Amino acid sequence: MLTRGVVTATFIVLAALSAPVNSYAEDDPHGSGGTHCGLYTCEVAVDVTGQAGGQEGGSGGTEESGGGSGSASGDDGKYANVCTYKLADPQPPAGSLDWEGHEPGDGAVYEQSCTRNGGDLTIIRMVWQADPPEQEALDPAVLAQRAVDSMTLLGPDIASPRAAGKYTVGVPMWMWVNQSATTYGPNTASASAGGITVTATAKVSKIVWTMGDGSSVTCNGPGTPYTSSQDMPESPTCGHVYSKTSAGAPSGKFSVTATSTWTINWQGGGQAGQLTEVRQTNVQVAVGEVQVVR
Questions:
Q1: Distance from first CA to last CA of the chain, Å, rounded?
Q2: 3-state helix, strand, coil in the chain (%, to 5)
Q3: What are phi and psi of 41, to 5 degrees?
Q4: Which of 107, 149, 231, 261 is the residue whose CA sits 20 to 30 A from 135?
Q5: Where are the domains positioned within the chain?
Q6: Which residues face 259 on adjacent strands?
Q7: What single DSSP character describes residue 66?
């Protein structure tokens, strides 16, 4: 026995796509088994074999799957971060599936835009609402973190000490790093959603050097490059003096770790704040003693 059911399918449209073409239902929305589409919804009449008493608009029908609530719900909204609404202008004509069984003047049809998966995906669809929907508030701090996540923030680009260098007990070691947008900053990025744009700027505020001999040095800048014209003074900004050799360390070298703290200032959406990120770089350094030739 063949029975006829009605299935409503909702098509997900990425925000990056161009504006869709309006497609409205025919005078007979069910036709003779064809497919009829609204702006984002298609209603399909199908023949079901061996199922008696089929119910038009059942569990897969317009009423339950059309999104009449206007806000993300169930599986469709499970991963939504925020949804915004814009009144459809012009409104769909009478008989359009976008009215979800209602008539023009009974509520209104809105364009719903929802971000998903932390903002990586935006879904747009048409929904009917009895009353103007409340706009969900998006926390600008969420956009700030999204902007930071889009940056490439790396550990320090260590210029000195060098893995190939030879260093001596009692001789001042000058430490400094190369500066770039990804290793020291400034690094700027923006993120937008729900009509809000947040801009974040990141820059390294300090570098903590763990020297491998049990000591650490905190430098509030990139350090000062050493030049051969200088004698052997200590670095004016970032340096260390080893008091023992690395002979007893694994592989005969000290493991030196430079840990940078990125301070990120952001503003947007009428708010401002600060975030931090931490990155590390490691270098193996050999430290020996002065050899006296007699």
A1: 109
A2: 10, 40, 50
A3: -125, 135
A4: 149
A5: 2-129, 140-288
A6: 208, 280
A7: S
Return phi, psi of residue 149, to 5°.
-65, -25
Rounded CA separation 56/23 (Å): 22
Q: Which two tokens stand for residue 167?
A: 């260093």
Please count the other Cβ atoms lying within 10 Å of the Cβ belonging to residue 2: 11
Per-residue model confidence as pLDDT tens for the chain (294 residues):
444 443 444 333 333 333 333 333 333 333 344 444 555 455 554 454 444 433 333 333 333 333 333 333 334 433 446 788 889 999 999 999 999 999 999 999 999 888 776 556 778 899 999 998 876 677 899 899 999 999 999 999 999 999 999 899 999 999 999 999 999 999 999 998 877 899 999 999 999 999 999 999 999 999 999 987 667 899 999 999 999 999 999 999 999 999 999 999 999 999 999 999 999 999 999 999 876 555
Residues 255 and 212: beta-carbon distance below 8 Å: yes
**Is the pTM value of this prediction over 0.70?**
no
Helix (H, G, I), strand (E, B) or coil at 64: helix
Asked if 42 and 36 touch (Cβ cutoff 8 Å), the reply is yes
